[in-house]
Design a protein that fits this description.
- The protein is of the alpha+beta class.
- It folds into two domains: 149 residues, dinb family like domain (Four Helix Bundle (Hemerythrin (Met), subunit A), Up-down Bundle); 285 residues, paralog of FGE (formylglycine-generating enzyme) (Alpha-Beta Complex).
- It has nine helices and twelve strands.
- The strands form four sheets. The protein has a four-stranded mixed sheet with strand order 10-9-8-11. The protein has a three-stranded antiparallel sheet with strand order 1-4-12, with helices on one face. It has a three-stranded antiparallel sheet with strand order 5-6-7, with no helix packed on it.
- The longest helix has 25 residues.
- The protein is globular.
Amino acid sequence: MTDLAGLSTEEQLKQRAVDSLTAARARTALLTSCVDDHDLTAQHSPLMSPLVWDLAHIGNQEEQWLLRTVGGRPAVRPEIDSVYDAFEHPRAARPTLPLLPPTEARAYAADVRGRVLDIIERTPLHGGPLLDAGFAFGMIAQHEQQHDETMLITHQLRTGPTALTAPPPPAGDTTGLPAEVLVPGGPFTMGTSTEPWALDNERPAHRRIVPAFWIDTVPVTNGDYQRFIEDGGYTEERWWAPEGWAQIREHSIGAPLFWRRDGGQWLRRRFSVLEPIPADEPVLHVSWYEADAYARWAGRRLPTEEEWEKAARHDPVSGRSLRHPWGDGEPTELHANLGQRHLQPAPAGSYPAGASPLGVRQLIGDVWEWTSSDFLPYPGFAAFPYREYSEVFFGGAHKVLRGGSFAVDQVACRGTFRNWDLPVRRQIFSGFRTARTAAPGALTASAAHPGAL
């Protein structure tokens, strides 16, 4: 990021907008330049769009919100609005649409971006909720990074030669770490009313009272999950919600997505590479049903969304809710595994500098963490700037995920950020940790549970 020292507040906000948009576009370019045009236009799974659809959709959303709405400029390509409307066309149907070919999609997105940079330079960042603190520009930077994560999922699903590489994450160390951490009962502030680029479902800040509970110090690992499998986890109905049991029976599921057994060894396919599964890495590509079944097998449960956020943000000394587990500062390479830096989760126990005040590790980055909660609005919720971002998804059909994965950029990841998906989803970069309700007067760590390290 650019050094902001010496700049006025307005100049700092504009530079943050430019930096965030530029970082997102660099990542988009990487994800769409590492494969040929055939891979860009192919649909690698009916669950995902062709990569070239995401590329032009990114440009179209930027045109609609930043050129037309914020800048008041004439439309560049109004005839393609319908083609790139995510609500009009389900992913499975998008290959049949008249999509812009790769060269044209790149040129379109670049043309829009050039005009947007001019608008940032000329537009005061105040005078309404879309402009205050550069919200609209931050919203579009987050939108592009979210589609970058979607495109990375598509890369994981595609077959063929390896297209992406990255260095391994830093080593983890669980020596001396307790299996779980006690989060004291009482009130805390959930959500935000002050984070300038927070999205509507994160708002407003409100008081919640959460009874005391224990939560895993680190996410559940591959080694933990293998013990669940070996103990017959996928063959015993008693661990499963009825809908989850029906799913694994119908689809003959017996392990996380991309896992396979080769003799006595578990292997996984990770971005076209077949490799042994590291036992100390957080488990990945599990559905909510699988996470819930594991938790029941371990004699525990998934944390509620309120519990997860309190474990991640509450500082018992000051009583404040922090922006991130480690404090209010932006994440660095010392705090969390974000931004597609490593293309896999870091081992359990990594990033001690990113621990919460209570000592919970890896709450941000590595894997999205399933919670037990349905995706619902906060008290006082107001849809902004459009209903389709959050409001149309509220209800019991979607479960909340928290924390972000290694595929999430820091602009779209904070202690209040809420993700959601259907409980059957497995292609996403999802994992989990477990929790349990504390007995009255609990003050000390418990004995290790079955999934403990």
